[in-house]
Amino acid sequence: MYARGRLAGAIMSITMLGGLGAAGLPGAASASEPARNYLVFYTDGHRATAERAAEAAGGTIQGRDDKLGYLVVRASDPEKIGADPSVVGVALDRPIGKTADAPAASGARRVEHVRSAAKHVRSAQGGDPLSGRQWDMKMIGATPTGSYAKARGSHKVLVGVIDTGVDGKHPDIAPNFNHALSRNFVVDEPTDENGKPLDGPCEHKGCKDPADVDDDGHGTHVASTIGSPINGIGVSGVAPDVSLVNLRAGTDSGFFFLKPTMDALEYAADVGVDVVNMSFFVDPWTFNCANNASDTNRERLEQRAILEGMRRAVKYARAHGVTLVTAIGNEGLDLGKVKNDTSSPDFPKGSEKKRSVDNTCLNVPAELDGVISVSSVGPGGQKASYSDYGVEQTDIAAPGGDMFDGGTGLKGASREILAAVPENVLRAKGLVDAAGTPKTSSVIRDCHDGKCAYYQYLEGTSMAAPHVTGVAALIIGRFGKPGKGGLQMDPAQVERMLYATATPKGCPAPRTYRYGTGESQVCEGPTAKNGFFGHGLVDAARAATAVAP
Protein backbone atom coordinates (compact mmCIF):
# COMPACT_ATOMS: atom_id res chain seq x y z
CA MET A 1 0.00 0.00 0.00
CA TYR A 2 1.01 3.56 -0.60
CA ALA A 3 -1.41 6.05 0.82
CA ARG A 4 -3.23 9.05 -0.53
CA GLY A 5 -4.18 11.60 2.11
CA ARG A 6 -6.01 14.76 3.06
CA LEU A 7 -5.89 16.92 6.16
CA ALA A 8 -8.59 18.64 8.09
CA GLY A 9 -8.42 22.20 9.27
CA ALA A 10 -5.64 24.65 9.98
CA ILE A 11 -3.06 24.37 12.75
CA MET A 12 -2.43 26.83 15.52
CA SER A 13 0.50 28.61 13.90
CA ILE A 14 -1.63 29.86 11.01
CA THR A 15 -3.82 32.92 11.42
CA MET A 16 -6.87 32.18 9.27
CA LEU A 17 -9.14 35.07 8.36
CA GLY A 18 -11.49 33.36 5.95
CA GLY A 19 -12.81 30.05 4.64
CA LEU A 20 -11.40 27.75 2.00
CA GLY A 21 -12.41 28.10 -1.61
CA ALA A 22 -13.60 25.33 -3.89
CA ALA A 23 -11.07 23.13 -5.61
CA GLY A 24 -10.40 23.32 -9.32
CA LEU A 25 -8.13 22.24 -12.12
CA PRO A 26 -4.77 24.02 -12.36
CA GLY A 27 -5.30 25.06 -15.95
CA ALA A 28 -5.19 28.49 -17.53
CA ALA A 29 -7.10 31.36 -15.95
CA SER A 30 -10.37 32.59 -17.46
CA ALA A 31 -12.16 35.89 -17.15
CA SER A 32 -15.09 34.22 -15.37
CA GLU A 33 -12.98 32.18 -12.99
CA PRO A 34 -14.21 32.48 -9.39
CA ALA A 35 -11.91 33.45 -6.55
CA ARG A 36 -10.29 30.57 -4.67
CA ASN A 37 -7.82 30.21 -1.84
CA TYR A 38 -4.18 29.74 -2.81
CA LEU A 39 -1.00 29.03 -0.87
CA VAL A 40 1.55 31.64 -1.96
CA PHE A 41 5.15 30.84 -1.01
CA TYR A 42 7.49 33.81 -0.86
CA THR A 43 11.27 34.11 -0.84
CA ASP A 44 13.00 34.56 2.50
CA GLY A 45 12.44 38.04 3.92
CA HIS A 46 9.96 39.11 1.24
CA ARG A 47 6.58 38.54 2.86
CA ALA A 48 5.55 42.19 2.56
CA THR A 49 6.51 42.25 -1.12
CA ALA A 50 4.48 39.09 -1.77
CA GLU A 51 1.52 40.60 0.09
CA ARG A 52 1.65 43.69 -2.13
CA ALA A 53 1.90 41.49 -5.23
CA ALA A 54 -1.14 39.49 -4.12
CA GLU A 55 -3.17 42.60 -3.47
CA ALA A 56 -2.06 44.19 -6.76
CA ALA A 57 -3.38 41.07 -8.51
CA GLY A 58 -6.77 41.59 -6.89
CA GLY A 59 -6.24 39.05 -4.14
CA THR A 60 -7.06 39.36 -0.46
CA ILE A 61 -4.87 37.98 2.32
CA GLN A 62 -6.76 35.30 4.27
CA GLY A 63 -3.95 34.13 6.52
CA ARG A 64 -0.26 33.35 6.70
CA ASP A 65 2.30 30.95 8.14
CA ASP A 66 5.48 32.78 9.06
CA LYS A 67 7.29 29.58 10.07
CA LEU A 68 7.06 28.03 6.61
CA GLY A 69 6.90 31.29 4.69
CA TYR A 70 3.59 31.36 2.86
CA LEU A 71 0.39 33.35 2.58
CA VAL A 72 -3.17 32.13 2.14
CA VAL A 73 -4.59 34.38 -0.56
CA ARG A 74 -8.07 34.46 -2.04
CA ALA A 75 -7.69 35.33 -5.70
CA SER A 76 -8.95 34.58 -9.20
CA ASP A 77 -5.61 35.08 -11.02
CA PRO A 78 -2.86 33.12 -9.26
CA GLU A 79 -0.58 33.40 -12.30
CA LYS A 80 -0.40 37.17 -11.91
CA ILE A 81 0.66 36.70 -8.28
CA GLY A 82 3.18 34.05 -9.30
CA ALA A 83 4.81 36.40 -11.82
CA ASP A 84 6.26 38.54 -9.02
CA PRO A 85 9.96 37.77 -8.27
CA SER A 86 9.19 37.51 -4.54
CA VAL A 87 6.93 34.49 -5.13
CA VAL A 88 8.40 30.97 -5.32
CA GLY A 89 5.23 29.03 -6.07
CA VAL A 90 1.44 29.15 -5.90
CA ALA A 91 -0.80 26.14 -5.20
CA LEU A 92 -4.54 25.84 -4.91
CA ASP A 93 -5.49 25.00 -1.32
CA ARG A 94 -7.14 21.65 -2.01
CA PRO A 95 -6.72 17.93 -1.34
CA ILE A 96 -3.57 16.76 -3.11
CA GLY A 97 -2.17 13.38 -2.03
CA LYS A 98 -2.55 9.64 -2.05
CA THR A 99 -2.03 6.55 0.05
CA ALA A 100 -0.09 3.46 -0.62
CA ASP A 101 -3.07 1.22 -0.08
CA ALA A 102 -2.14 -1.22 -2.76
CA PRO A 103 1.19 -1.71 -4.44
CA ALA A 104 1.27 -2.02 -8.18
CA ALA A 105 3.74 -3.70 -10.46
CA SER A 106 1.93 -2.12 -13.37
CA GLY A 107 -0.87 0.23 -12.44
CA ALA A 108 -2.91 0.06 -9.25
CA ARG A 109 -3.27 -3.39 -7.78
CA ARG A 110 -5.45 -3.93 -4.74
CA VAL A 111 -5.19 -7.49 -3.50
CA GLU A 112 -8.06 -9.31 -1.83
CA HIS A 113 -7.75 -12.95 -0.73
CA VAL A 114 -10.65 -15.29 -0.09
CA ARG A 115 -10.44 -18.00 2.57
CA SER A 116 -11.92 -18.65 5.99
CA ALA A 117 -10.56 -17.00 9.11
CA ALA A 118 -7.75 -19.12 10.54
CA LYS A 119 -7.20 -20.27 14.11
CA HIS A 120 -4.73 -18.55 16.40
CA VAL A 121 -1.08 -19.30 15.72
CA ARG A 122 1.06 -18.65 18.79
CA SER A 123 4.77 -18.04 18.48
CA ALA A 124 6.94 -20.89 19.68
CA GLN A 125 8.86 -18.23 21.59
CA GLY A 126 5.80 -16.69 23.21
CA GLY A 127 4.46 -13.25 22.41
CA ASP A 128 0.96 -12.21 21.42
CA PRO A 129 -1.59 -14.67 19.97
CA LEU A 130 -0.90 -13.76 16.33
CA SER A 131 2.87 -13.31 16.69
CA GLY A 132 3.44 -16.57 14.82
CA ARG A 133 2.03 -14.91 11.71
CA GLN A 134 4.41 -11.97 11.92
CA TRP A 135 7.27 -13.17 9.71
CA ASP A 136 8.18 -9.51 9.30
CA MET A 137 9.02 -9.13 12.99
CA LYS A 138 11.14 -12.28 12.92
CA MET A 139 13.00 -10.96 9.87
CA ILE A 140 14.12 -7.81 11.70
CA GLY A 141 14.66 -9.42 15.09
CA ALA A 142 11.63 -7.91 16.84
CA THR A 143 10.90 -11.00 18.94
CA PRO A 144 10.85 -12.02 22.63
CA THR A 145 14.44 -13.27 22.35
CA GLY A 146 15.49 -10.37 20.12
CA SER A 147 14.80 -6.67 20.54
CA TYR A 148 11.85 -7.17 22.94
CA ALA A 149 14.28 -8.57 25.50
CA LYS A 150 16.47 -5.46 25.31
CA ALA A 151 14.43 -2.47 24.11
CA ARG A 152 10.72 -1.92 23.60
CA GLY A 153 10.69 1.86 23.32
CA SER A 154 9.24 4.22 25.90
CA HIS A 155 5.98 6.11 26.39
CA LYS A 156 8.19 9.20 26.44
CA VAL A 157 8.91 8.57 22.76
CA LEU A 158 6.21 10.22 20.65
CA VAL A 159 5.65 8.57 17.28
CA GLY A 160 3.53 10.58 14.86
CA VAL A 161 1.51 8.75 12.21
CA ILE A 162 0.76 11.14 9.33
CA ASP A 163 -1.87 9.14 7.51
CA THR A 164 -5.62 8.57 7.06
CA GLY A 165 -6.16 8.47 10.82
CA VAL A 166 -5.62 5.99 13.64
CA ASP A 167 -8.36 4.00 15.37
CA GLY A 168 -7.53 5.01 18.93
CA LYS A 169 -10.17 2.64 20.31
CA HIS A 170 -8.77 -0.51 18.70
CA PRO A 171 -7.83 -2.92 21.54
CA ASP A 172 -4.33 -3.32 20.11
CA ILE A 173 -3.80 0.45 19.68
CA ALA A 174 -5.62 2.00 22.65
CA PRO A 175 -3.02 1.24 25.38
CA ASN A 176 -0.40 3.26 23.49
CA PHE A 177 -2.65 5.89 21.90
CA ASN A 178 -1.98 9.51 22.93
CA HIS A 179 -5.38 11.21 22.81
CA ALA A 180 -4.11 14.50 24.20
CA LEU A 181 -1.69 15.20 21.36
CA SER A 182 -3.55 13.55 18.46
CA ARG A 183 -5.04 15.88 15.86
CA ASN A 184 -7.10 15.67 12.68
CA PHE A 185 -6.07 18.26 10.08
CA VAL A 186 -8.69 17.36 7.43
CA VAL A 187 -12.39 17.75 6.82
CA ASP A 188 -14.37 15.04 5.03
CA GLU A 189 -15.63 16.03 1.59
CA PRO A 190 -18.65 13.92 0.53
CA THR A 191 -18.18 14.75 -3.18
CA ASP A 192 -15.52 16.33 -5.36
CA GLU A 193 -15.96 19.55 -7.30
CA ASN A 194 -17.60 17.63 -10.14
CA GLY A 195 -20.20 16.10 -7.82
CA LYS A 196 -18.63 12.63 -7.88
CA PRO A 197 -18.44 10.63 -4.61
CA LEU A 198 -15.21 11.32 -2.73
CA ASP A 199 -15.19 10.67 1.03
CA GLY A 200 -18.77 9.55 1.46
CA PRO A 201 -21.30 10.91 3.95
CA CYS A 202 -20.28 13.06 6.92
CA GLU A 203 -20.51 11.17 10.20
CA HIS A 204 -19.64 14.03 12.54
CA LYS A 205 -20.47 17.71 13.00
CA GLY A 206 -18.71 19.90 10.50
CA CYS A 207 -17.63 16.79 8.56
CA LYS A 208 -14.59 16.54 10.81
CA ASP A 209 -13.86 13.16 12.37
CA PRO A 210 -12.52 12.95 15.94
CA ALA A 211 -8.78 12.45 16.25
CA ASP A 212 -9.18 8.76 17.15
CA VAL A 213 -11.07 7.72 14.01
CA ASP A 214 -9.82 6.02 10.84
CA ASP A 215 -12.41 5.38 8.12
CA ASP A 216 -9.83 4.03 5.66
CA GLY A 217 -7.77 1.60 7.75
CA HIS A 218 -4.39 2.48 6.26
CA GLY A 219 -3.20 4.63 9.15
CA THR A 220 -4.30 2.13 11.79
CA HIS A 221 -2.37 -0.66 10.05
CA VAL A 222 0.74 1.53 9.97
CA ALA A 223 0.37 2.52 13.63
CA SER A 224 -0.06 -1.11 14.66
CA THR A 225 3.17 -2.19 12.98
CA ILE A 226 5.00 0.60 14.77
CA GLY A 227 3.60 0.26 18.25
CA SER A 228 0.94 -2.36 19.01
CA PRO A 229 1.61 -3.33 22.64
CA ILE A 230 2.54 -6.79 23.90
CA ASN A 231 -0.73 -7.30 25.76
CA GLY A 232 -2.03 -10.79 25.02
CA ILE A 233 -4.13 -9.53 22.11
CA GLY A 234 -3.46 -9.93 18.40
CA VAL A 235 -0.05 -8.73 17.19
CA SER A 236 2.97 -6.91 18.59
CA GLY A 237 4.61 -3.82 17.08
CA VAL A 238 8.28 -3.08 16.54
CA ALA A 239 8.30 -0.68 19.50
CA PRO A 240 5.47 -1.95 21.75
CA ASP A 241 5.96 0.60 24.54
CA VAL A 242 5.91 3.91 22.60
CA SER A 243 3.20 6.57 22.45
CA LEU A 244 1.29 6.75 19.17
CA VAL A 245 0.14 10.19 18.03
CA ASN A 246 -2.43 10.44 15.24
CA LEU A 247 -1.53 13.33 12.91
CA ARG A 248 -4.24 12.84 10.35
CA ALA A 249 -3.50 14.53 7.04
CA GLY A 250 -5.25 12.02 4.76
CA THR A 251 -8.84 11.90 3.61
CA ASP A 252 -11.18 8.92 3.77
CA SER A 253 -10.67 8.64 0.02
CA GLY A 254 -6.90 8.60 0.51
CA PHE A 255 -5.88 12.05 -0.77
CA PHE A 256 -3.44 14.37 1.03
CA PHE A 257 -3.65 18.17 0.83
CA LEU A 258 -0.39 20.07 0.65
CA LYS A 259 -1.48 22.37 3.48
CA PRO A 260 -2.69 19.65 5.88
CA THR A 261 0.51 17.69 5.32
CA MET A 262 2.58 20.77 6.12
CA ASP A 263 0.33 21.48 9.11
CA ALA A 264 0.90 17.96 10.45
CA LEU A 265 4.68 18.27 10.12
CA GLU A 266 4.73 21.71 11.72
CA TYR A 267 2.53 20.56 14.59
CA ALA A 268 4.73 17.50 15.14
CA ALA A 269 7.75 19.78 15.44
CA ASP A 270 6.03 22.19 17.81
CA VAL A 271 4.76 19.59 20.31
CA GLY A 272 7.92 17.48 20.48
CA VAL A 273 7.08 14.44 18.36
CA ASP A 274 10.26 12.38 17.94
CA VAL A 275 9.67 10.50 14.69
CA VAL A 276 6.92 10.53 12.07
CA ASN A 277 5.85 7.93 9.53
CA MET A 278 4.73 9.18 6.11
CA SER A 279 3.36 6.33 3.99
CA PHE A 280 1.96 8.58 1.25
CA PHE A 281 2.90 11.00 -1.47
CA VAL A 282 1.59 14.50 -1.95
CA ASP A 283 -0.67 14.81 -4.97
CA PRO A 284 -1.90 15.68 -7.50
CA TRP A 285 1.52 15.17 -9.09
CA THR A 286 3.30 11.83 -8.83
CA PHE A 287 6.42 13.70 -9.95
CA ASN A 288 6.73 17.41 -9.23
CA CYS A 289 8.57 19.32 -11.95
CA ALA A 290 9.56 22.95 -11.48
CA ASN A 291 9.98 23.68 -15.19
CA ASN A 292 8.31 21.09 -17.36
CA ALA A 293 7.68 22.37 -20.88
CA SER A 294 4.55 20.24 -21.27
CA ASP A 295 2.87 21.83 -18.22
CA THR A 296 0.92 25.06 -18.17
CA ASN A 297 2.30 28.01 -16.25
CA ARG A 298 -0.24 27.44 -13.50
CA GLU A 299 0.72 23.77 -13.24
CA ARG A 300 4.37 24.72 -12.94
CA LEU A 301 3.53 27.23 -10.20
CA GLU A 302 1.63 24.54 -8.32
CA GLN A 303 4.44 21.99 -8.52
CA ARG A 304 6.98 24.58 -7.41
CA ALA A 305 4.76 25.34 -4.42
CA ILE A 306 4.54 21.65 -3.48
CA LEU A 307 8.31 21.24 -3.75
CA GLU A 308 9.07 24.39 -1.79
CA GLY A 309 6.34 23.93 0.81
CA MET A 310 7.29 20.35 1.60
CA ARG A 311 11.01 21.18 1.67
CA ARG A 312 10.32 23.90 4.20
CA ALA A 313 8.04 21.70 6.31
CA VAL A 314 10.60 18.87 6.31
CA LYS A 315 13.43 21.26 7.20
CA TYR A 316 11.38 22.82 10.02
CA ALA A 317 10.43 19.44 11.48
CA ARG A 318 13.96 18.06 11.28
CA ALA A 319 15.38 21.22 12.88
CA HIS A 320 13.03 20.64 15.81
CA GLY A 321 14.14 17.06 16.40
CA VAL A 322 11.70 15.10 14.25
CA THR A 323 13.13 12.07 12.44
CA LEU A 324 11.26 11.65 9.15
CA VAL A 325 10.52 8.25 7.60
CA THR A 326 8.62 7.69 4.35
CA ALA A 327 7.55 4.92 2.00
CA ILE A 328 9.35 5.07 -1.35
CA GLY A 329 6.37 4.12 -3.55
CA ASN A 330 4.71 1.17 -5.24
CA GLU A 331 5.10 1.50 -9.00
CA GLY A 332 8.20 -0.69 -9.41
CA LEU A 333 10.11 2.29 -10.83
CA ASP A 334 13.76 3.29 -10.71
CA LEU A 335 13.07 6.79 -9.47
CA GLY A 336 16.36 8.05 -10.87
CA LYS A 337 15.44 7.03 -14.42
CA VAL A 338 11.77 7.87 -14.82
CA LYS A 339 10.96 9.28 -18.25
CA ASN A 340 7.17 9.37 -18.40
CA ASP A 341 4.35 10.27 -16.05
CA THR A 342 0.83 9.24 -17.05
CA SER A 343 -0.84 9.45 -13.62
CA SER A 344 -0.69 13.19 -12.94
CA PRO A 345 -2.54 15.28 -12.00
CA ASP A 346 -4.71 12.66 -10.30
CA PHE A 347 -7.25 14.99 -8.70
CA PRO A 348 -10.00 15.43 -9.58
CA LYS A 349 -10.40 12.06 -11.27
CA GLY A 350 -9.93 12.19 -15.01
CA SER A 351 -7.38 15.01 -14.99
CA GLU A 352 -4.42 12.78 -15.82
CA LYS A 353 -2.28 13.46 -18.88
CA LYS A 354 0.84 11.95 -20.45
CA ARG A 355 4.00 13.99 -20.08
CA SER A 356 7.75 13.52 -20.23
CA VAL A 357 9.70 13.88 -16.98
CA ASP A 358 13.33 13.59 -15.90
CA ASN A 359 15.35 13.17 -12.71
CA THR A 360 14.74 16.80 -11.71
CA CYS A 361 11.08 15.90 -11.18
CA LEU A 362 10.60 14.60 -7.65
CA ASN A 363 8.22 12.28 -5.85
CA VAL A 364 7.37 14.06 -2.58
CA PRO A 365 8.25 13.41 0.23
CA ALA A 366 10.27 10.31 -0.76
CA GLU A 367 12.90 12.24 -2.73
CA LEU A 368 13.36 15.18 -0.37
CA ASP A 369 16.58 15.77 1.55
CA GLY A 370 16.32 14.90 5.24
CA VAL A 371 13.76 12.12 4.71
CA ILE A 372 14.56 8.42 5.19
CA SER A 373 13.06 6.60 2.21
CA VAL A 374 12.16 2.92 2.66
CA SER A 375 11.95 0.18 0.03
CA SER A 376 10.06 -3.06 0.59
CA VAL A 377 11.12 -6.72 0.73
CA GLY A 378 8.99 -9.86 0.75
CA PRO A 379 9.23 -12.82 3.15
CA GLY A 380 12.10 -14.33 1.11
CA GLY A 381 14.16 -11.17 1.56
CA GLN A 382 14.19 -10.04 -2.07
CA LYS A 383 12.99 -6.59 -3.09
CA ALA A 384 9.24 -6.64 -3.58
CA SER A 385 8.26 -6.45 -7.24
CA TYR A 386 6.08 -3.37 -6.70
CA SER A 387 8.63 -1.39 -4.66
CA ASP A 388 10.18 1.69 -6.24
CA TYR A 389 13.95 1.90 -5.96
CA GLY A 390 17.02 3.89 -7.02
CA VAL A 391 20.62 4.43 -5.94
CA GLU A 392 19.93 8.05 -4.97
CA GLN A 393 16.48 7.43 -3.53
CA THR A 394 16.58 4.21 -1.46
CA ASP A 395 17.96 4.71 2.05
CA ILE A 396 17.00 1.47 3.81
CA ALA A 397 14.82 -1.60 3.30
CA ALA A 398 12.19 -3.29 5.48
CA PRO A 399 9.60 -6.06 5.20
CA GLY A 400 6.50 -4.89 3.35
CA GLY A 401 5.15 -8.16 1.96
CA ASP A 402 4.96 -9.52 -1.57
CA MET A 403 2.35 -11.90 -2.95
CA PHE A 404 4.80 -12.99 -5.66
CA ASP A 405 7.56 -13.94 -3.21
CA GLY A 406 7.40 -17.73 -3.14
CA GLY A 407 9.76 -20.38 -1.80
CA THR A 408 9.26 -19.45 1.87
CA GLY A 409 6.54 -21.92 2.77
CA LEU A 410 4.09 -19.05 3.15
CA LYS A 411 1.05 -18.94 0.92
CA GLY A 412 -1.43 -16.32 -0.20
CA ALA A 413 -2.18 -13.53 2.22
CA SER A 414 0.37 -14.80 4.75
CA ARG A 415 3.12 -13.37 2.53
CA GLU A 416 1.85 -9.91 3.44
CA ILE A 417 2.04 -7.86 6.65
CA LEU A 418 -0.52 -8.52 9.39
CA ALA A 419 -1.54 -5.56 11.55
CA ALA A 420 -4.58 -4.00 13.21
CA VAL A 421 -7.57 -2.73 11.23
CA PRO A 422 -10.73 -0.89 12.41
CA GLU A 423 -13.84 -3.06 12.50
CA ASN A 424 -15.93 -0.27 10.95
CA VAL A 425 -13.69 -0.29 7.87
CA LEU A 426 -14.08 -4.05 7.41
CA ARG A 427 -17.85 -3.78 7.74
CA ALA A 428 -18.03 -0.91 5.28
CA LYS A 429 -16.03 -2.94 2.75
CA GLY A 430 -18.03 -6.11 3.31
CA LEU A 431 -15.00 -8.07 4.53
CA VAL A 432 -16.85 -9.44 7.58
CA ASP A 433 -20.41 -10.71 7.83
CA ALA A 434 -23.16 -9.43 10.10
CA ALA A 435 -21.89 -11.64 12.93
CA GLY A 436 -18.37 -10.28 12.52
CA THR A 437 -16.90 -13.40 10.94
CA PRO A 438 -14.18 -12.63 8.37
CA LYS A 439 -15.18 -13.38 4.80
CA THR A 440 -11.69 -13.19 3.25
CA SER A 441 -8.24 -14.55 3.99
CA SER A 442 -6.93 -11.02 4.35
CA VAL A 443 -8.77 -10.60 7.67
CA ILE A 444 -8.14 -12.32 11.01
CA ARG A 445 -10.34 -11.97 14.10
CA ASP A 446 -8.76 -12.46 17.53
CA CYS A 447 -11.12 -12.75 20.53
CA HIS A 448 -10.33 -12.82 24.27
CA ASP A 449 -12.54 -12.36 27.33
CA GLY A 450 -15.57 -11.52 25.21
CA LYS A 451 -13.76 -8.85 23.17
CA CYS A 452 -12.71 -9.24 19.55
CA ALA A 453 -10.15 -7.30 17.54
CA TYR A 454 -9.48 -7.40 13.82
CA TYR A 455 -6.28 -7.61 11.78
CA GLN A 456 -5.63 -7.46 8.06
CA TYR A 457 -2.91 -8.63 5.72
CA LEU A 458 -1.67 -5.85 3.43
CA GLU A 459 1.45 -5.32 1.35
CA GLY A 460 3.31 -2.26 0.13
CA THR A 461 6.05 0.18 0.94
CA SER A 462 3.45 1.72 3.27
CA MET A 463 3.82 -1.45 5.32
CA ALA A 464 7.63 -1.38 5.11
CA ALA A 465 8.16 2.19 6.34
CA PRO A 466 6.60 1.70 9.81
CA HIS A 467 9.14 -1.03 10.59
CA VAL A 468 11.88 1.57 10.15
CA THR A 469 9.87 4.13 12.13
CA GLY A 470 9.55 1.60 14.95
CA VAL A 471 13.30 0.92 15.03
CA ALA A 472 13.97 4.66 15.03
CA ALA A 473 11.68 4.88 18.07
CA LEU A 474 13.71 2.15 19.80
CA ILE A 475 16.91 4.10 19.18
CA ILE A 476 15.38 7.32 20.54
CA GLY A 477 14.06 5.42 23.56
CA ARG A 478 17.58 4.20 24.33
CA PHE A 479 19.62 7.31 23.61
CA GLY A 480 17.23 10.27 23.62
CA LYS A 481 17.71 13.03 26.19
CA PRO A 482 14.94 14.72 28.19
CA GLY A 483 13.31 17.39 26.08
CA LYS A 484 10.07 18.74 24.69
CA GLY A 485 7.43 16.04 24.56
CA GLY A 486 9.51 13.66 26.68
CA LEU A 487 12.69 12.64 24.88
CA GLN A 488 14.64 14.21 22.05
CA MET A 489 17.44 13.05 19.78
CA ASP A 490 19.13 14.65 16.80
CA PRO A 491 17.55 13.15 13.65
CA ALA A 492 21.01 12.95 12.06
CA GLN A 493 22.15 10.68 14.90
CA VAL A 494 19.04 8.52 14.61
CA GLU A 495 19.61 8.19 10.89
CA ARG A 496 23.25 7.20 11.32
CA MET A 497 22.31 4.53 13.85
CA LEU A 498 19.57 3.15 11.61
CA TYR A 499 22.07 2.68 8.81
CA ALA A 500 24.89 1.44 11.05
CA THR A 501 22.69 -1.25 12.61
CA ALA A 502 21.01 -2.33 9.37
CA THR A 503 22.00 -5.73 7.96
CA PRO A 504 23.97 -5.08 4.75
CA LYS A 505 22.28 -6.57 1.70
CA GLY A 506 23.90 -6.55 -1.73
CA CYS A 507 22.29 -6.57 -5.14
CA PRO A 508 21.03 -9.92 -6.44
CA ALA A 509 23.15 -11.84 -8.94
CA PRO A 510 22.58 -11.21 -11.73
CA ARG A 511 21.79 -7.56 -11.02
CA THR A 512 18.99 -7.55 -13.57
CA TYR A 513 16.25 -9.28 -11.67
CA ARG A 514 13.16 -10.65 -13.40
CA TYR A 515 10.13 -10.84 -11.16
CA GLY A 516 7.24 -13.26 -11.35
CA THR A 517 5.25 -10.45 -12.92
CA GLY A 518 7.57 -10.53 -15.94
CA GLU A 519 9.16 -7.17 -15.10
CA SER A 520 12.91 -6.66 -15.17
CA GLN A 521 14.49 -4.30 -12.65
CA VAL A 522 18.18 -3.47 -12.36
CA CYS A 523 19.94 -3.07 -9.01
CA GLU A 524 22.89 -0.67 -9.01
CA GLY A 525 25.46 0.16 -6.35
CA PRO A 526 27.63 -1.75 -3.85
CA THR A 527 26.50 -3.75 -0.83
CA ALA A 528 27.10 -0.72 1.40
CA LYS A 529 24.50 1.37 -0.50
CA ASN A 530 22.50 0.17 -3.47
CA GLY A 531 19.29 0.94 -5.28
CA PHE A 532 17.26 -2.02 -3.99
CA PHE A 533 18.13 -2.05 -0.28
CA GLY A 534 19.93 1.22 0.44
CA HIS A 535 22.12 0.78 3.52
CA GLY A 536 20.58 -2.64 4.17
CA LEU A 537 17.65 -4.31 5.92
CA VAL A 538 16.53 -2.54 9.09
CA ASP A 539 17.43 -4.57 12.19
CA ALA A 540 15.59 -4.08 15.49
CA ALA A 541 17.72 -6.59 17.38
CA ARG A 542 20.98 -4.87 16.45
CA ALA A 543 19.51 -1.43 17.19
CA ALA A 544 18.43 -2.68 20.62
CA THR A 545 21.98 -3.62 21.57
CA ALA A 546 24.12 -1.09 19.69
CA VAL A 547 26.47 1.10 21.68
CA ALA A 548 25.73 4.78 22.18
CA PRO A 549 26.40 7.01 19.14
Automatic annotation (TrEMBL):
For biological process, the GO terms are: proteolysis
- What InterPro entries does the record point to? Peptidase_S8/S53_dom, Peptidase_S8/S53_dom_sf, Peptidase_S8_Asp-AS, Peptidase_S8_His-AS, Peptidase_S8_Ser-AS, Peptidase_S8_subtilisin-like, Peptidase_S8_subtilisin-rel
UniProt keyword annotations, A-Z: Hydrolase, Protease, Serine protease, Signal
Instruction: Name the Gene Ontology molecular function terms of this record.
Output: peptidase activity
Where, by residue number, is the active site? D163, H218, S462
Check the record and name the Gene3D superfamilies matching this protein.
Peptidase S8/S53 domain (3.40.50.200)
Q: Where is the Peptidase S8/S53 domain?
A: 155-508
Q: Which Pfam families match?
A: Peptidase_S8
Q: What span is annotated as the signal peptide, if there is one?
A: 1-31
Superkingdom assignment = Bacteria
| Family named by the database record | Belongs to the peptidase S8 family.
Q: What is this protein called?
A: Serine protease
Q: What is the lineage of its organism?
A: Bacteria, Bacillati, Actinomycetota, Actinomycetes, Streptosporangiales
